[in-house]
Amino acid sequence: MFFRNQVAKIASFDERISGLQALGFTSQSEPGGGSGVQSRVQRKGYGAVVKSNADGTPSIVHTGLVMVGEIGALVNLGYQMIFRTPSGKELAAQAGHLKALHAFDEDLREGLGMTSLYNVALGTTTEKHLYDRVADRDAAPHHRPWER
User: How many CA atoms lie within 13 A of 115 on its CB side?
Assistant: First the structure.
């Protein structure tokens, strides 16, 4: 008798997005910025933009709180965390927001079959850090005090 190992079926991007409905997510196709397909995924007031990579695997572009039809990204100001939309609307992040965003992100990663990293699984992380209170310090060209 011969036994064969079952070949694992790799789900396509569309199959992964449609599988999110079982977890309570809603999705809609969105025009992509470049090559690939993008979808906007939402659940209970939180949203994410998920894009398809060249090899068909999903990657999360950004997540955040849905505010007036836009996804507000979490920004760490050092003394406070806020949600900021691309149009400039801001909302102070409260503890309930951060817990719900973390749960949303973890469920989304699980539903898409993505790896959840240890440091991300510990709590809510941000990609935008604006700790410095000196205006335009990071703007190019960089000025060195000893050069005139």
Answer: 3
Residues of the chain with pLDDT under 50: none
3 state DSSP class of 64: strand
pTM for the whole structure: 0.77
Task: Quick: pLDDT tens for 12-41.
Answer: 888 899 989 999 999 998 876 666 789 999
**Rg over CA atoms, the chain:** 19
Cβ(66)–Cβ(45) under 8 Å? yes
DSSP annotation string for 109-130: HHHHTPPPPHHHHTS---SEE-
- Six-digit token string for 28: 């809609």
Helix (H, G, I), strand (E, B) or coil at 50: strand
Structure tokens at 61: 């572009």
The rounded distance, in Å, linking the Cα atoms of 143 and 146 is 9
